[in-house]
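A favour, since you know our structure tokens better than I do. It will help me judge whether the discrete encoding reads sensibly. The space below this message is yours for that.
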Amino acid sequence: MRLLKILSGIILIFGLLFLSGCDDLQLIDVKGPTIEVKVPEWGAYLIAGTFAPFEATFTDDFELATYNIEIHENFSGHGHGRVAYILEDPALLKWSFKQSFTIPAGLNIFQAILEEDIEVPSNAIAGPYHFIVQAIDNAGNSTSFQDDSAIELEVYISNDSQPIINITNLDNGELTIEKDVLFMVEGDITDHTVGEFAGITSMDIILGEEAHDDSEHVHGGRIASADLVDMFFEEQELQQFMVNESIILEAVFAYINFSLSQTQLDELIAEHIDHLLLTIIVNDNQGNIAVSNTDVHVLGN
């Protein structure tokens, strides 16, 4: 009987130790934070000489520690590897920003709002920039690009001297395209630089599937593998479209002479694509890259 009590006591002690060990295992933090960015949105414009707003919610299963914001140019990611510009004004800056921010202790949910912490210099070169947000929790776990917990947005910086792309035939903020009808864009492009660095050096016209990142749309058809329109014009070629130092978009799209075929429309319908994206990329002699992204509604789909 005494031996039975001793054995029972030993079993009880080991049981308590096991349960205690389980509790300790449950308290081990091995998972990184999650991030939801509200501002800026993908494709937002940041204006040189102003503060870039930022708003995001950080969440962790235990306790947050810090978050980091990094911004740098993404000029080589545009123009399909084509020459971005010929000259570059030394007065302009390929701007970059990197700063870590501390999250108050004890919080597993934190809403960050920055209004005057990210100053975009007035001499920043216009163009596409990466806006990257990461976070670390109190146990040292970090967000990662491998599991998509780190956030990378594409934003655009605009300044006073970049080319202005003015599309005038928008309907509720978008263009339209339909089968067997010439796809036409009206308006103009004007460079606002004067002096040594005046002039537009190249232009890309790309019409393809609408997507804000590589993961949003995965299709197996032609639209996923090639753009419907992909035209590149160098400086000398642009002269044929110029009137009073402005590029006339009607002349450009009359030259491109694109209309949607029945085969292309059928594939768009099969892929459940009812909008395309028209991207116009213009490079000037200052080094500025002006980017215009316009939704194109596919009629008949």
